[in-house]
Input
Amino acid sequence: MAVTTIPSPSPAGADPSLPTVERPAPARLLKRPSDTRGIVGWITSIDHKRIGILYGVTAFTFFLIGGFEALLIRMQLATPNGKILTAQVYNQVFTMHGTTMVFLVIMPMSGAFFNYLIPLQIGARDVAFPRLNMFAYWLYLFGGLFLYSSFLLGGMPNGGWFGYAPNTSITYSPGHNIDFWIFGLLILGISSTISAGNLIVTTLNLRAPGMRLLRMPIFTWMALVANFLLLFAMPVITVALFLIMFDRQWGTHFFDPLAGGDPVLWQHLFWLFGHPEVYILVLPAMGIVSEIMPVFSRKPLFGYPVMVFSGIAIGFMGWGVWVHHMFAVGLGPVATSAFSVSTMLIAVPTGVKIFNWLGTLWGGSLRFRTPLLFAIGFVVMFTVGGLSGVTHALVPADRQQTDSYYIVAHFHYVLFGGSMLGIFGGIYYWYPKVFGKMLDERLGKWHFWLTVIGFNLAFGPMHILGLQGMPRRIYTYSNSMGWNLWNAVSTVGAFTIAIGTLVFLINVRKTDQHGLPCGDDPWDARTIEWTTPNPTPEYNFLELPTVHAVDDFWHRKYTEDDAGRLVKVADSAQFIERRATADDHIHMPSPSYYPLVATFGLPIIAYGQIYRLWAVSIIGAVILLGGVFAWGLEPSTEPPDPDEIAASHEALELGAGEGGTRELAAAPSSASAVAGSATAGSAGSATAGPSSEEPTDG
Amino acid sequence: MADITLDPPPGPETPAAHHHPADAHHATATGVSNEKMMMWAFLGSECLLFGALISTYILYRHKAVHGPTPHGLYDIPFTSVSSFVLLMSSLSMVLALAAIQRGDERRLRVWLSTTAMLGSVFIAGQIYEFTSFIRRGMTIKTNVTSGAFYVLTGFHGAHVTIGIIMLLSLVNLSIRGKIPQARSEIVEIAGLYWHFVDIVWVIIFTVVYLIP
Amino acid sequence: MTTTPPIPSTAASGGPATATDPATDASLAAEAALIERHEHPSDGTYILIALALAVVTAAEVGIFYLKSSSVTTVVLLAMMALKFSVVAGYFMHLKFDSPVLRRLFVAGLVLACFVYSVVFFLFGVFHV
Output
């Protein structure tokens, strides 16, 4: 049934042929949001693409904050006897820098890519549980804000991003700093676990016809492995956090040696999470690099199945190496040797990937555009970081390296030189898909070179400093140590990175203001997310695709002649879908307030716990429960018009109804026409609003 | 994907064409429903959670420096009855599911309520047990063993309590006619959670109570 | 259960709604469908299983009162594992459901057993 709406007056410049969104509001306690415009549209959106953009923008904001913290550190350490930060403040700054970069930047940045791309790469319209997806994002934002609220409430967490007991016990960390860290991470952990489950179900269940597992784009594969790691690793740190919380709040002794507790248990629990965590941090970026390189070499990924299986191997083996963070704890030769061997072994699947990336580039018709530069940057920098990692695997060597700047160098090479460069590559590569415009190439290259040069200046010398004995986590050093030169160089590097980041921001602004819409397949890409118009329409695919091969899109455009040369058989334009019109009836899940409402509950519970105000915690619990219940009773999709409501009541008797737990509603499939695009960058936004429909026939 | 239909090209259609019986098997790529898979993924993750708590208990079981420890205070007959009660609640749960899969909404409510009641009896038993321990001087902060004990059983009890709330919500929904035979899967999924909580107790009972 | 109607095939998208290689996933889907429709143990079976579990529990408690040794510990753990598997396999229907679900759960279970056993070794629980 085609339900036509009386189009609301469209904003100037909107294309009148664009269909209008209608989301009528049935009578309910909280009127179901129906407007996809403006702030309300973004706040109540359950669209995976909008949520992906929210993750990305929020994560980038935290990147700037974490980067600012890094600059503070580098200013303090630029010279001996620095006076910029006191020791107490320094502890907060380096703790928040690490916590921010790991939990509030890289993980959510990966989340941005997961959310935006996975449904598109597997040929789906959204994730399995859109409202859960929304909930996970808001938990992330509120968790981050909660963490940073400590700045105004007595001091930010100061026990390191790893929170070692007994330093974080109430004896040695009185005050609420660590409590904010604990509860903040608990909230963020819930967000990550929910998101991981959601994306696993999405990836396994919502693949389009023909999209076998071994035909999925490699990014989706790496995301799947990372999401499994998240699903299984987060509970471990959750327990660790609860135990230290009980020690601090309720007087237990889990990590108090005098009472029979063991601080080493904290380390085990933390690193049991922490090591899979670093693969969570890097696998998505590896997936991004594996997407970029084939496109810009115009060759398939070298050894696609091997890349998949090495990613899976990394995921498995990542659970068997955590003690390498504890080589200096005194666990004995048997333990340390065993983990030394396992750590060396895990370099193998990673090395395999490096060779396969080189094999992808080799003999390719290379186009050195910004995404490829960042991808190559990843491979080189990550190799350096991986090599220093291998040196840590040697226990006697690690005895000297551990807790020194050599380690700081290693993890920045793999996390910044690796993950962040990969992420930047992904931003430049998929920018046209998300926003319909390409970032400026010249500014992109400036960004790249400033970042890479600055990065190597900042972190290269740290290898030397570490081997010269400079310990981590010290707020200053004396003039006589001989560390002055390399610290100064490092600080110059840090500021160079900052300038590079500024160039990136200028690029984004310039593109937003003056960028011209690019085509739908600007990179001549390989995977099916590029078969939708740019920017991606709200409904993703007009018709869900059927997939016949890895790099399905590429194979529709090109084939090879007998000599192995590429032969173009069809133009991209033939396969890019047209945009939907009012005659297409594509039904999408409805936006919702309730996940956002429920989100408020958790930080309130946390504040109540920190300040021992049980009434506050109970209020938070009520909000959380109320929000969740209302969410559960709300159908995932609203019925579209009175006739449909009547019909769906009837169907309710037969059991096709709404209500019950979330996401269980039948799709009383309406003929809600869908707007052309609801993403930020497009000119004609969806017009919605109280629509009075006139049911028509067809 | 749950709610997306791709309508055929425009033509005269009736509203009924857009309604489908609720248990039309939706075309997920694996044949398993999204909700069920999500619950199993969550339960897999819970293995790591309870594993950490159980391990902490095992590690600290003999490390108490002073004060009464759980082993000295257990009333095994009492706890055995509690365990039996929880086990039987799994039976009533599965009977509830079987009932609604046959379309018997009344029996569904009977067995769901029974399950919730048995679960509440279990929780009452836990509360009784804990208060008696506390009266005899073993609190959460007495020593590391007691701490580990209370945290582990406390987490488990919290899970049971959430389960009871879920079950009662289902009873409520059923009373309002929202759980017909075609929507039995929601009962199945709640059942999965409930049985999991039961098997965690199977482990706790053996490892914490029975093994010295 | 979500009530998605199967994605109808249009001329353009063609093909059945099963998303993967017909050989593996049609069989998975068919298996799942079969299971959903046919293989439910009867009420009587469930009651019998519950009784058996109760008997095992009683036996466990009985063993508790014996002099404890490594043998009794092993037996207790074996009985625990038996009850675990029976509830998971029958009450939770894992035995009859799609293998995907079994793999998901067992992955978490095996991983937990593995990593925490290693932690026990490192803390000397096994007196190695």
User: Anything to note?
Assistant: Chain C has a mean pLDDT of 78. Residues 41-97 of chain C form one domain. Chain C has four helices and no strands.
